[in-house]
Each structure stands twice: as structure tokens, then as C-alpha cells.
Amino acid sequence: MNSIEFAESQYRYFSANDLFNLLAAVAVLGTGFARTWWGIKGTAWYWHQPLLHLKLTLFVVIGLLSIKPTLTFLRWRKHLNAAGQLPVEAEIRQARRWVMIEAHLLVFVPLAATMLARGIATR
Ligand code: HEM
């Protein structure tokens, strides 16, 4: 496999990886809600915690931020399949920046989760 073929296979893989991320996000959301219903501290307690709302807000914001890169990956794959064209550098840089912002916001989600579970900054 030469470097162009390798790049092509990587760009095709992006969309599959993105779909997997979507399925994982749905599973995380489902298990998160389930923990508020069946968690030991009771539904009312969880939903009165600002940290839970922070977590959920971050989760939703990250989800919304991921729309643009997802559409970009789909467009890249379409161009690759139709015309054998790889994305230009400016587009790659832009997509990387969006994913980088998402990744940095994601760090705060388990932080909020652990504080919530340990009763730090809860009421
Ligand atoms: C990327 C997203 C998420 C990550 C990485 C994450 C991570 C975690 C972790 C690591 C814990 C265990 C904390 C500990 O025992 O120290 C936890 C607990 C929990 N999560 Fe999430 N979570 C996410 C999304 C959500 C969402 C969307 C919800 C609710 C809508 C949610 C609700 C909860 C609840 C209720 C607990 C139990 C807290 C407790 O035991 O007091 N999580 N989460």
C-alpha cells in the first residue's frame, strides 16, 4: 500500500469511526439517565445537582460541536468515492480544530461525574 492508498483508507475509516462514536454517545446518554433513575441517591437528588446539569450541558454542547466535523467527514468520503479526491489541507486543519475543542471539553465531563459521585460541590 502506497501513501495515497493509505490516506484514502484512513479517510474512509473516519465515517465508520464517527458512526461508532454516535452509537457510543447514545449508549452513554442512556446509561447516564438510567443512573439518575436507579442510582442510590434518588432521582430528585441527581436532578437537583448543578453538576449533573453541567455534565449534561457539556455532553449536548459536544454533540452539537460534532455535527460539523461529521458532515465534513461524509463530504470527504463522497468526494473520495466519486472523484478520488483527498481533502485540502485547510479543510483538514479546520476539522482537526473542531475535534480538538470537543476533546478538551470532554475532559470536564468525568471530572464533573467524579465530583458528583463523591459529593463534592453538591447540595
Ligand atoms: C461522555 C459522557 C459521560 C462520561 C465520560 C461520564 C462519566 C461518568 C463516570 C466516570 C461516572 C462514575 C463517577 C464515580 O463513581 O466516580 C459517572 C456517573 C454518573 N453519570 Fe456519567 N458520564 C457521562 C455522561 C452522563 C450523562 C449524559 C448523564 C445523565 C444524563 C450521566 C449521569 C451520571 C450519573 C447519574 C452518575 C452517578 C453519579 C453518582 O453515583 O452519584 N452521565 N459518569
Explained architecture:
There is one protein chain. By secondary structure, this protein is mainly alpha-helical. Helix 3 packs antiparallel against helix 6 (108-118). The protein is elongated. The protein has one domain (3-118). It has helices spanning 3-38, 43-47, 50-65, 67-83, 89-106, 108-118. It has six helices and no strands. The longest helix has 36 residues, at 3-38. Bound molecules: protoporphyrin IX containing FE. Protoporphyrin IX containing FE binds at residues 28-29, 32-33, 35-36, 39, 41, 46, 55-56, 59, 109-110, 113-114, 116-117.
Number of separate helices:
6
Which structural class is indicated by helix and strand composition? Answer: mainly alpha
Report the uncertain regions.
none
How many distinct domains? Answer: 1
> Main β-sheet: number of strands, strand sense, barrel status?
none
Distance between the termini: 58 Å
Strand content: under 5%
